[in-house]
Amino acid sequence: MRLSAGTAMLVTALVVAGCASQSPSGGNATNGGGYYQNDGPPEDEDIDLSKIPDAVPRNVPHTKYGNPPSYSALGKRYYVLDSAAGFTQTGRASWYGRQFHGERTSSGEPYNMFSMTAAHKRLPLPTWVEVTNLANGRHCVVKVNDRGPFHDGRIIDLSYVAARRLGVVAQGSAPVRIRTVTPEDYRRPRATSTEPAPPLRAAANNNTSAVALGYLQVGAFSVARNARRLHDKLIAAGLGPVRIVMPAGHSGLYRVQVGPFADIEARRRTARTLIARGLAVRQVDG
């Protein structure tokens, strides 16, 4: 969480010129992010989360701003990591919203509560991390482009829309696990049509007409842990990559989808294997 730029200078400024500092928060997380009387969600919360994709990792240099060897905030010194490779952490996530929308982050970018971003105290800027809500199994990828949260027990501050994706908004905070991701180990999940796709039948022979590239949906669950269970079974069986498409808002189904595929033949082979395992397979566009 952050103070306004002017107020931040009265606290302990980051040793990076021009960046927006963050402050610790106090009290219980009961409204919005739970820490700022004037903060909270946007006035219009009617957002189609399926239209907002995960952040996509890129191989880019660290930003000019926001990456000093160390900095002080609220009387405590933090040391920025030289590299984010292999970084994992477990703790609690919080979020920040409309009070800071449009303000400058520590990386110099404006904060956009409708983008998949986050703040972290030590990771180099920018870094991309996968955040998993340990309470409900939801996960997403965000770009770390800001500093914070400076509150004991909080390890990451999520943008409003990232918090919505993870189911954190109502509670204000949630237990999470974060791990860094790179372009090499991440495939970007894209929005999936809400229209039901036609069932894909097993190919009888090699003359079966080719299907379009995309994903194979093999399950849809109202409970996140059931989707995660199927996801893990498919991964263990070597049928990855597998993704879980999360429902928009607080209702809907968690859809387990295999793919994307490099070529049509790979998708056809996988479809036959899935059907042979007794799974109902549907073709969906990526």
Summarize the helices and strands and which ones pair or pack.
Layout (H helix, E strand, L loop, with lengths): L4 H4 L61 E4 L2 E4 L8 E9 L20 E3 L7 E7 L5 E8 L7 E6 H7 L7 E7 L34 E7 L2 H13 L5 E4 L8 E5 L5 H13 L5 E3 L2
Parallel strand pairs: 3-7, 4-6
Antiparallel strand pairs: 1-2, 3-8, 4-7, 5-6, 5-8, 9-11, 9-12, 10-11
Describe this structure in words.
This protein has a 6-stranded mixed beta barrel with strand order 3-7-4-6-5-8. Strands 10-11-9-12 form a 4-stranded antiparallel sheet, with helices on one face. The chain has helices spanning 5-8, 160-166, 224-236, 264-276; strands at residues 70-73, 76-79, 88-96, 117-119, 127-133, 139-146, 154-159, 174-180, 215-221, 242-245, 254-258, 282-284. With 286 residues, the protein is an alpha+beta fold. It folds into 2 domains: 5-183, Barwin-like endoglucanases, CATH 2.40.40; 215-284, Sporulation related repeat (Alpha-Beta Plaits, 2-Layer Sandwich), CATH 3.30.70. The chain is elongated and about 60 Å long. A hairpin with a 5-residue loop joins strand 5 (127-133) and strand 6. It is built from 4 helices and 12 strands; from the N terminus they run αβββββββαββαββαβ.
